[in-house]
Amino acid sequence: MTEINKKDFGKDGEEIAAKYLLKKGFEILKRNYRFSHGEIDIIAKDGDTLVFVEVKTRKNLEYGEPEYAITKKKIQQLKKIAELYLFDKQIEEADCRFDVIAIILGSENNPQITHYENAFM
Asked: What's the pLDDT at 91?
């Protein structure tokens, strides 16, 4: 799989995740919030809670469950970017959490979506 295909593939997963969150009543505030070498896929509100969402997408289970691709280093990076987002937006008091959405595309019309709320602290 070429780098461009991987990027498109990830974008497809993020699109599925965003639609899923909207259906669940989340408000999408920002997609692909970048800072330096890192990115948070989706920043949303679930009621009064600010939610930083990491999306992992796989075609199948050949390389294992998508959520297992999130390493300790990735979690540290997400936390750091979330702090920078709060600083950037001058948000001082907010209930926040980190969610993970794992997507297995399988058949084109019926992706398997697993949503882990409050996946890590």
From this structure: 95
What is the domain extent for residue 89? 3-120
CA of 87: how far to CAs of 27, 30, 42, 96, 100, in Å? Answer: 20, 15, 17, 13, 22
Q: Which pLDDT does position 7 carry in this prediction? A: 65
Q: How many residues does the chain have?
A: 121
Number of domains in the chain: 1
The arithmetic mean of pLDDT across residues 72-77, rounded, is 95
* DSSP per residue, 26-74: -EEEEEEEEETTEEEEEEEEETTEEEEEEEEEESSSTT--GGGG--HHH
Q: Write the CATH number for 74.
A: 3.40.1350.10
Contacts of 56 (CB under 8 A, 6+ apart): 13, 66, 67, 69, 70, 100, 101, 102, 103
